[in-house]
Each structure stands twice: as C-alpha cells, then as structure tokens.
Amino acid sequence: MTCPTARPRCSRPPPVSSSQVPLAWGAIRLSRALTDMPTEPTLTRHSLIGAQGVVVSAVPSTGYGEVRLALAGQQLKYSARSAVALPAGTPVYVIDTLSETAVEVVSTAADPLPLPGGDPS
Description:
Blueprint: H1 20-35, E1 52-57, E2 65-71, E3 74-81, E4 91-97, E5 102-107
Parallel strand pairs: 3-5
Antiparallel strand pairs: 1-2, 1-4, 2-3, 4-5
C-alpha cells in the first residue's frame, strides 16, 4: 500500500475582492482621523484653582465639608476646607488645592448664609 503524495502548497495569496479595497481604505482613513483628533488637556489638581461650585455638605471652620465643582462641563465632588464655616448651598470659589481630592474655598455669596440654628445677629 502506498501513501498518497501531498499536494504542494500554493504560494500565491488569495485573490482580493473588489469590496475589500474600499473597506481597507476607509479603515485606514478612520484610524488616522482618530489618531490626529484634538483632545482637551487632562485635568490636574492645579486645574481646580479658580473653579466655582456650591457647598453640598456644610464646611465647618475646623474641618472638612463637601463641594460640587463645575470643571470641563462636568460636576465633580471634592472635600473642602474653609477659614469660616459655610452652610450647604453656599456658592464658593477654589483658592487652593490641598490634595488630589481636597480644596480650600471661599464664599462668593453676597451675604453669608446663616447657619441652621445659629444666632440671627
């Protein structure tokens, strides 16, 4: 019994169909467009200085509260410290960044909002 001989492999590439060329061209153009697309710079802690926001959780004069800041079209929450106590709802302005997640703020309200249960004077 003899073994059948194997056929030699074809060294030519398979034929290219007429629809593959435009698809390949389109894929190349799309990848180039995405590679060259302009983007906004990445936000850093120094980008927070000058941001405006509002107090979400009251900020005591000796501790931290929470503020919501508007940055690059997004609403982000940060821990906040202030020299004076700020009740929730007070509009604020960031004057310093303490860390990646904490900022120092000052009130931008015309008249400081009274603290709940505080002295009305």
